[in-house]
Amino acid sequence: QVQLVESGGGLVQAGDSLRLSCAASGRAFSNYVMGWFRQAPGKEREFVAAVTGNGDNTQYGDSVKGRFTLSRDNAKNTVFLQMNSLKPEDTAVYYCAAGQEIQIRRTRWAFDYWGQGTPVTVSS
Fold first, then answer.
1. How far is CA 115 from CA 14, 38, 63, 124, in A?
2. Which of 27, 34, 52, 81 could disulfide-link to 20, CB 3.0 to 4.6 Å?
């Protein structure tokens, strides 16, 4: 079992930055692919980014590529999502997720554990 707790969301203006954190409890954190998804009102949950257990492969959704950076600290059981140049369309609830598959699959169904989400609102 893995429990995930997100933090760092908030209200910002377009062009600002935010850093989301996801703290994981449980063993063998480095065995999990860690990812971020987001869901805006009335929309499907969207893949944002994911990183493999040892950090050798990181992938991003097309809408955030070049603006967001995902990193993980296996010693601290934590992943970080640095979000720069935020846009109003980035407004959503952001969810941290952990998956037991070895490779990254950009679908919510590849992830087994989810946090409660942290809201991000970007005003224009």
1. 26, 12, 22, 28
2. 81
What contacts 74, CB < 8 A, 6 or more positions away? Answer: 29, 30, 53, 54, 55
Which amino acid is it at 56?
Answer: D
Instruction: Give the pLDDT score at 88.
Output: 97
Give the whole-angstrom CA distance, residue 21 versus residue 33: 15
Strand ordering across the sheet containing 68-73: 3-7, 18-25, 78-83, 68-73
85 DSSP assignment: S
pLDDT digits (tens, 9 = 90+) for 68-102: 999 999 999 999 999 999 999 999 999 999 999 88
Give the list of residues 6+ apart from residue 91 with CB closer than 8 angstroms, or none: 40, 120, 121, 122
Fill in the DSSP letter of residue 66.
T
Amino acid at position 69, single letter: T
Average pLDDT, the chain: 96
> CA-to-CA distance for 19 and 28, rounded, in angstroms?
24
Higher pLDDT, 28 or 90: 90
